[in-house]
Design a protein that fits this description.
Blueprint lengths: L6 H10 L5 H15 L28 E2 L7 E8 L2 E13 L2 E4 L5 E2 L2 E2 L5 E5 L9 E10 L16 E5 L20 E6 L18 E8 L4 H4 L14 E4 L16 E6 L2 E7 L2 E2 L8 E4 L5 H8 L1
Antiparallel strand pairs: 1-11, 2-3, 2-7, 3-4, 4-9, 5-6, 7-8, 8-9, 10-11, 10-13, 11-12, 12-16, 13-14, 15-16
Helix pairs in contact: 1-2
Length: about 300
């Protein structure tokens, strides 16, 4: 995926303009960051209209359904967008009373880490516009192995968000192992429900989810795609999921949102949406494994 908020738009441009050159796609990404489109495909943050210099990734839930189970730990990372003070930007997961895990590309650009002051989070509500608990953001802590590139994805696409106050919602347990090939994860988020989505006002209000099969890391489709080769493929510490019926997966607005597995009747955080190898819903999705990065997460949050 790309790197931050409007990188979402960059991914979307890449997925929907597959026949253009990288230079042409870069121009599309620039246009997206000016508010002409709002979803992405490689990491999928919901693009922010009218903000130059911010990049981002996006993801959406395609082929899924609205969630009916309440997840205490789900997070919408939000920021003013136009007249909406609570514009959805990326997903996230509460991992401690005052810490949220999201994708690094959601809070960075090639120029560095974004200013945390304009952001806030809504925690524990299926409706991203109301309910749950709201907290301001104090700090973004990006994984030291992450690199913000304009036209390719990076390993270690994780960042921790330090909240200005604690919340009472129950955090998600961190998975102790990476999901194996043949298992299933539940991808979640508030991303677009169609690969053609590019208007932030059309992001779903209600949380959505879809069950996806885990693929072996050496699956060719996890490593490279038709349009961009290995630019957005699997990296060290990632895992990869397939697309049931050829039309299911994540997309714009889903970046940073949790991928869940159930152990002993309890949901665990196994990964977070980073990017897709190619087009939304039709090519594999890539997630940093929480188990592979658990030591770093624990070191930061204490």
């Amino acid at each position: 995926m790309k790197t931050s908020q409007d990188n979402l738009g960059s991914n979307l441009a890449r997925r929907t303009v597959r026949s253009t050159t990288r230079a042409a796609r870069a121009a599309c990404v620039s246009a997206l960051s000016l508010g002409l489109a709002a979803a992405g495909t490689v990491a999928y943050a919901a693009p922010q209209s009218g903000t130059a210099g911010d990049s981002g990734h996006q993801t959406k839930i395609i082929g899924g359904e609205e969630s009916t189970e309440n997840y205490s730990f789900i997070v919408s990372l939000q920021k003013q967008r136009g007249d909406d003070p609570d514009g959805h930007y990326c997903g996230g997961t509460l991992v401690a009373a005052d810490w949220v895990l999201t994708a690094a590309h959601c809070v960075t650009t090639a120029a560095g880490v974004n200013d945390p002051k304009p952001y806030h989070v809504r925690v524990g509500s299926l409706d991203r516009t109301r309910g749950g608990e709201v907290a301001q953001v104090d700090e973004f802590v990006v994984h030291p192995g992450y690199q913000a590139y304009e036209d390719e994805g990076s390993a270690h696409d994780l960042a921790l968000i330090k909240l200005s106050s604690t919340v009472s919602k129950k955090p998600a347990p961190l998975a102790s192992r990476t999901p194996a090939a043949g298992e299933t994860v539940k991808a979640t988020g508030w991303g677009y429900t169609k690969a053609t989505g590019n208007d932030p006002s059309q992001l779903p209000v209600m949380h959505r989810e879809v069950e996806l099969p885990v693929l072996a890391p050496d699956t060719p489709e996890c490593a490279s795609g038709e349009a961009d080769g290995d630019a957005w493929g699997i990296r060290e510490g990632d895992f990869c999921t397939g697309n049931p019926d050829g039309n299911a997966g994540t997309c714009g607005g889903d970046s940073g949102a949790p991928a869940l597995t159930k152990v002993n009747g309890r949901w665990q955080l196994s990964g977070l949406t980073s990017r897709a190898v190619g087009d939304c819903g039709t090519t594999p999705d890539i997630y940093p494994s929480v188990a592979e990065h658990r030591d770093w997460i624990r070191d930061v949050i204490g």
